[in-house]
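User: Here's a protein and a ligand (NJP). What would the complex look like?
Assistant: Let me lay out the input and then the predicted complex.
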Amino acid sequence: TDQVAIVSGASRGIGRAIALLLALQGAKVVAVARNEGELEELTQKTRGLCIVADISIEEDAQYVITETLNHFGRLDILICNAGVGSFNELENFEAAEWDRIFDTNVKGTFLLCKSAVPHFKAQKRGHIVGITSDVAKRTFAHGTAYGASKFAQDAVLASLRKEVRPHGVKVSTIYPGLVDTYFNDTTPGSAEAEKTHLRPADVAQAVRYVLEAPAHVVVDELMLHPLTQEW
Ligand code: NJP
């Protein structure tokens, strides 16, 4: 297809796999992250556009949408994937770290959607895909900030789904379990346990599935786990 897709957090991990799969399928991919190096390397593979932006900053998020429209003249798909997390007992959690997690996961999703939705509504078509987490539906020790941010991100997307549905715009939410990425300063493949985790490409296939639904179908939610993960 000649569809234009923005992928936030595209430089590594899940976002990179989504960007590569969408490009392989013929989409024009706009790859977004804060650091330029990995983004440029990816963009050589996707032959798309890369935009260096911090999605937690309103001007940056607006720029991602306007620059995409300036460059390609259209926007069909927004993948809200960028996210961060760290884990600690509540009393040892720094308030600044709480803010970093909420600013990225919740506010970042809000800001990208805020800029894209008027365009999607005007064209009466568009698809927002949010990568949240299975921890948007469960709680766990040491996960106060990250878990709460994923519950909140999930609620943003679920509310938005109801707002935009009458305008022909879809919102799909994907809930992955453990995925072997660079998340929380880890290195893929470094730990024995990670060998059974989902691969970023597994999550990319889930994104592909929700995007390929017929025009009259919206996949609201899709959850996937490694077979070995008890949750
Ligand atoms: O993480 P990682 P994942 N503005 O660290 C970018 C969720 N999830 O792929 O900005 C713009 O490999 C960052 O680039 P840079 C998770 O919560 C994961 O695992 O240059 N971009 C990089 O490209 C998250 O929502 C697991 O540092 C920003 C990317 O985001 C999503 O999956 C399980 C940014 C992060 O790549 C992708 O995470 C689960 C900003 N402010 C859900 N901040 C899991 N890994 O187990 C970061 O259930 N980025």
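Summary: The two ends are 37 Å apart (CA to CA).
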